[in-house]
Amino acid sequence: MTFSRSSFGRGQRAGHRGAPGGHDFRRTPAASLPKPEHSQRQIESIAAAPALTEDFDDKIRIENVEYVTSFNWKETRDPTIIVPGKPPRWQPPSSAQSLHEDGGIYYRDPNSARFPSYPTEPAIRAIRERIPDFDLSEIDVFGCGNTVGSLLSFARDEERTFRFGVESIGSSLFLVRKTNTPRETIEDVRGYGHTFPEAYTTWARDVRGSASHQRVIKYDFAGLKCFIRSESDGYLPDLVDHNKSTSEQKHEDGDDPLSDTNRLMALALGLQVPSTAIDLTVQHAGEPTPQQALFDLKTRALKTKRAGDISVDDFLHRMWVNQTPNFILAFHTYGKFENNNIHIVDVRNKVNEWEAQNATMLSKLGGLLHKLINVATQNGESRFEVRRVGKGPLQLWSEVPQWSALSPGLKALWGVKDRHETRALQAEQNKLVHEDDEDADYLKF
């Protein structure tokens, strides 16, 4: 059995076993945002993205991409992550498959659904578990594919409705995606973005029971050290260097961060952090997967467009943000996937070309990141909310008192202590438990 490798454009990412984005492409109604709360006030309205100054002309490209950590969300009642975890392996069946269309409940943001009070916290915990002596001051901006992608859409003057929270913690700026409710679902899901990966990928034995694979990378952009969390749909086993022994891999990557010694160090560090009201269980299994092997995927009906008509231009900006090098484009006819209609795409060269051709727009993205940092550090607004509807301006609003990017326990690692905030967060967590028993299934006190 063979699968073709081609230079087709990359499609929208499927939220593998989570929020599916790989369904057959179709326009969806414009989203709406909840109104700001009475306690919020508008800080600023930005009509157009500011460009970087000439001093940054040589820094409007992504450089020095490195894997930092990863984790799998485990399908359990209580919030549990597996560090470093492993994405599902590409393991296609030998014959054509006729699949049922997606059905069920898919969360828009699996991190928010499983850890609603602090969706970013599991990623930071995964960094500390894997690299106990990690220097937190190295983080200039910590975001995700969604938050940075939202800013990119504004820089591109593209229609998109979104909101996210911003908080300056020490020298680090956190961008945290916000959904209308923690367990907001995607309505009217159609296509095969969930059933296709279920049939064509498999979890390794030591991470079975996983719901999704989350990955954190870092890179230099616009003079900033950016840390980006994103979800990976899987990996291609033939792009993993199997000739390296385990000891060689450890030597290349430095000391094994999950060795018994370092695990004890991580535990000792954890004992120095004040306990939080919500408990996140951390398990250790899996192994780091090289960035070069990762892929995202998209399914599309063969009858709507021929393969040669697909343009890469609509999708390369997503691949640029997450630096995912491979894409699987799977065509079907009424749910039947023939092997010769499944294409494995290496998009690295196309992404590099897109980056070079969009330097002006990327300069605006860099300008937006610096703008948010300035608002947080120079204007006395350490926490605020970014909002946009359709093609409107980017609005900055003060944040609600109970919101925070991280729990007080983790913020203490940056030297931040705020008793008032601790009480406000505890009150909000109690409110979540009493108002929504279903959401409370994900909370462990």
Distance linking N and C termini? 51 Å
How many domains in all? Answer: 1
Shape: globular
Largest sheet: 11 strands, mixed
**Number of beta-strand segments:** 20
Radius of gyration, rounded?
21 Å
> How much strand?
25-35%
Based on secondary structure, the structural category is: alpha+beta
Per DSSP, the total helix count is 12
Integer average pLDDT = 82
Uncertain runs: 4-30, 245-277, 431-445
With strands numbered from the N-terminus, the spatial order across the biggest sheet is 2-20-19-8-9-7-12-11-3-4-14
Oligomer: single chain
Measured as a percent range, the helix fraction is 25-40%
Organism: Lithohypha guttulata
Protein name: Geranylgeranyl pyrophosphate synthetase
Structural overview:
With 445 residues, the chain is an alpha+beta fold. The chain has one domain (4-440). Helices cover 26% and strands 25% of the residues. It has helices at residues 110-114, 121-130, 145-155, 195-200, 246-253, 260-271, 316-322, 348-357, 359-378, 408-411, 419-435, 437-440; strands at 4-6, 42-46, 63-74, 80-85, 89-90, 97-98, 141-144, 162-169, 172-177, 201-202, 210-221, 224-232, 234-235, 281-286, 294-301, 326-332, 336-337, 342-346, 383-388, 394-398. Helix 3 crosses helix 9. The longest helix has 20 residues, at 359-378. The model is unreliable at 4-30, 245-277 and 431-445 (pLDDT under 50).
